[in-house]
Automatic annotation (TrEMBL):
NCBIfam families, per the entry: MTA_SAH-Nsdase
Top-level taxon of the source organism: Bacteria
Pathway this chain belongs to: Amino-acid biosynthesis; L-methionine biosynthesis via salvage pathway; S-methyl-5-thio-alpha-D-ribose 1-phosphate from S-methyl-5'-thioadenosine (hydrolase route): step 1/2
Keyword Protease: no
Enzyme Commission number(s) of this protein: 3.2.2.9
InterPro entries xrefs: MTA_SAH_Nsdase, Nucleoside_phosphorylase_d, Nucleoside_phosphorylase_sf
Name the UniProt record assigns to this protein: adenosylhomocysteine nucleosidase
An example Gene Ontology CC term for this record: cytosol
Keyword Cell membrane annotated: no
One GO-annotated biological process of the protein: L-methionine salvage from methylthioadenosine
Residue ranges constituting the Nucleoside phosphorylase domain according to the UniProt record: 4-224
Organism ancestry: Bacteria, Bacillati, Actinomycetota, Actinomycetes, Bifidobacteriales
Annotated keywords: Amino-acid biosynthesis, Hydrolase, Methionine biosynthesis
């Protein structure tokens, strides 16, 4: 029986290297996203990869679509994030051991499945990812990632750090982990640090983040190989 893994990114640049690497790729457009459906070179693993779009609703809808249609054994999120630590640097990596929402009252949300105030990447996937990152000599930590629907920079980043103790901030991870938990599908959220959450969106939008996105994608591809 063919094994299927799903990979999600929020932006085209976060999935481009993955789509380019897969073999025998077919493209399917459904539920507002294009799925790149192919095989990981040198393995018998089927990979379905897609660009969800930015924000929690796009991420959640895409995650549920992948689970319903392709029934992956696990979900991997590949992307960039803003650094909130004093000891990691640009192009280092934060693995989402814990994922929390920034702008959600969890007193109400946690009354529904999976009945929790926070979400977690799968322990085995975290272990595999850490091994791959060490083999690639990439500085990393398994920490907390904060997710919200607003681009965070400057003083807002300091407030996020004080409120959540997060190591990185982004816009999709908790939503992906939330939906994965509802469906009991193992998930891994991996973020390559592209900035120090100190640049306003109008400036950041002009940056070429492909180096950081490709860094995350290459790590995720090596994780897939390790899982083969």
């Amino acid at each position: 029986m063919t094994r299927t893994l799903a990979i999600i990114g929020a932006m085209d640049v976060e999935v481009a290297l993955i789509a380019k690497t897969l073999e025998n790729v077919q493209e399917h457009t459904r539920a507002g996203v294009t799925i790149f459906d192919g095989t990981m070179p040198g393995t018998d693993i089927r990979v379905v990869a897609t660009v969800a779009g930015m924000g929690t609703v796009n991420a959640a809808a895409t995650t549920q679509h992948l689970i319903d249609v392709y029934e992956p054994e696990c979900l991997l999120f590949s992307g960039i994030a803003g650094n909130l630590t004093d000891h990691l640097h640009i192009n280092d990596v934060v693995l989402g051991k814990t994922l929390v929402y920034l702008d959600t009252d969890m007193r109400m949300i946690s009354q529904s499945a999976p009945f929790t105030n926070e979400y977690h990447s799968d322990a085995h996937l975290l272990e595999v990812a850490s091994t791959v990152l060490s083999e690639m000599s990439i500085e990393h930590l398994a920490g907390t990632i904060a997710t919200g629907n607003t681009f965070v920079e400057g003083e807002a980043a300091e407030r996020v750090k004080e409120l959540t103790g997060a190591d990185a901030v982004e816009m999709e991870g908790a939503a992906v982990a939330h939906v994965a938990a509802r469906n009991e599908v193992p998930v891994l959220i991996l973020r390559s640090l592209s900035d120090n959450a100190d640049t306003e969106y109008e400036t950041f939008h002009e940056f070429d983040v492909s180096v950081y996105a490709d860094n995350a994608a290459s790590i995720v591809l090596n994780i897939v190989k390790k899982l083969a």
